[in-house]
Amino acid sequence: MANFVNHKKGIVLSETDKELLSSLYKADFLCDYHLSLIIGENKRYVAKRLHDLATAGLVGRKVLKANCPAANWITKSGISKAGLPPRNVRPPTLGRYEHSLGCADMYVYFCLLRKLKDGSRKRFVHFGNIITERDFNAVRELKEVGKKKNGQPILKSLDFDIHHPDGYFCKNGKYYALEFERTAKSTYEIVRDNALDNCKRFSKQFWVYDSKSVYNYLKKAQAEIGADKLQ
Question: Would you call 180 exposed, middle or buried from its count of C-beta atoms within 10 A (0-12, 13-18, 19+)?
Fold first, then answer.
């Protein structure tokens, strides 16, 4: 595969580079192993491409937490170079690291190649077809409700009263909500109400959790809502 070439007139991206940038565009950040699984390339090769893209200023790359893999995110230059629609760039923070990592793991899990009964392999859903949390936030309608001391506007989402899952996708005419919970919500009622909101707009919802409390809440909500709608 051709690597990009740094000419005086700019950088020529390979198809792999474009695929990497398009994937990063959809998430707060992705690690090397996420991208290796998404595009189906060797992790060493992916790491080399990401290093070169970062050197060119198209990708941000940083270890946010000790003993954890580097986080990769697309920069404004990367968005422009890849010809993608303008989108705010928010470098990942340690405060949101665990949630963003959990969401990335969840998205990739659903787009992994799986072996079917006939021996063939197929993705349950392609990564590009998942509407991620970042995709949601990019299209929310905002209203100016005031000004900060420095004159910058204070913006509020017009759909703040609607619960948004951490992602969703459409398959065979049905819509599936994706939720990741690392820590327990303050009450069972919040989990139940979020699940009920999802029921209004989605055929089924999948919850991925990393907390025994969330598991207990979900089991209770599943009994109330129905196992066919909440998994």
Answer: buried
Alpha-carbon gap, residue 224 to 230, rounded angstroms: 10
Query: Taking the domain 11-103, which CATH number applies?
Result: 1.10.10.10
Dist CA 26 CA 136 (whole Å): 10
For strands 204-209 and 113-115, give the pairing. unpaired
Predicted confidence pLDDT, tens digits, the chain (231 residues): 445 444 434 678 999 999 999 999 999 999 999 999 999 999 999 999 999 999 999 999 999 999 999 999 999 999 999 999 998 888 999 888 999 999 999 999 999 978 888 888 888 899 999 999 999 887 766 667 788 877 777 766 666 667 889 999 999 999 999 999 887 666 788 888 888 889 888 999 999 988 788 888 888 888 888 777 776
Is 24:74 a contact under the CB 8 Å cutoff? yes
CA angle centred on 183, ends 182 and 185, rounded to 5°:
125
Domain locations in the chain as residue ranges: 11-103, 140-225
Q: How far apart are CA 51 and CA 31, in angstroms?
A: 12
